[in-house]
From TrEMBL:
Pfam family, one: LacI
Organism: Mahella australiensis (strain DSM 15567 / CIP 107919 / 50-1 BON)
Domain HTH lacI-type intervals: 4-58
Keyword Repressor appears in the UniProt entry: yes
Lineage, broadest ranks: Bacteria, Bacillati, Bacillota, Clostridia, Thermoanaerobacterales
A molecular function GO annotation: transcription cis-regulatory region binding
Keyword line: DNA-binding, Repressor, Transcription, Transcription regulation
Name of this protein: Transcriptional regulator, LacI family
Amino acid sequence: MAGVTIRDIAKRAGVSIATVSRVINDNYYVSPDIKERVLRAIEELHYYPNSVARSLKNDATNTIGFLVSDISNNYFTTMAKAVEDVIHNEGYNLIVCSTEDKKERELEYLKLLISKKIDGLILNTTGENDDFIASLSEHMPLVLVNRKVYSDKFKGDFIDSDNIQGAYNLVSYLLSLGHRKIGVINGMLTVSTGKERFKGFVKAMSEVGIEVNEDYPYRYDGDFTLESGYQGAAKIMSASDKPSVIVIMNNVMTMGALKYFRSNGIDVPNDISIVAYGNIDNIELMYVQPTIVTLNAWVIGNKAGEMILERIKNKAVSNREVIYVPQLIEGNSVKKIESNQMYSVSH
């Protein structure tokens, strides 16, 4: 709610302005039931911008928050190390939190980091708290990595790869090798990475006259996790008329799919080909080395570290966007379809 004041909170809670102030600043005793009424009023009236502003100290703590969707993903572990290397040289420390892509957990960690008086925040968002994050960005230096916040009020920076082009390049590569029955294991369509990579997939397929819609037989929308990759591969491979290749939209789901194939005696690329979006750690040690388009966590982490430091030093910096162009790197995971074997998706 725009323009909410401490007077509005007091009226909603049925208490005095002084009582609201005491609850917000936590500097005098307030009985638990009254405190609960005030906090409920703050929540209901979306009083976050003012409470955030009050909670931010004028003096620096030399700490930066790094809030990601899944710290068990080596992509984010690598990114955290890259960020830390940059900010440590300037005397800053890093606090890392993982949301498991849960809206409530992200909100809890955002409030925790605010209470820790961090000087800036690097965020890979769930896509479920855009209004709160946009409000926060008015008071705190903020850099988004890989996932956008859809709000005109957001103030900060954004770093990613060109998701549409990367997915488009993967599918175009497969089409050039004769594939037409192309499966896709994607993440959530509620986040920009899921939306944009799927858009690139659809665009490439449409150029050869194949429509990808809700009824597309080789589509699985997951959540970017290992289990999602495993279940997506299981579902797609259960079709009586199987695809010749599957496009997998992140590194972790790729490992999940490979786990399914190995557990079920499915040979890559002889039984099924695969390609993946994003770099895979230690790929050179793997028996199956997926063809990928690059998504370099170290490069993005370094840039995020640089940009958050610049924004901390100069909070008046205009919004900036850095988009890296993904490069296709061939592995040994794709089998060419001979011209006499080419086929189309049946509907």
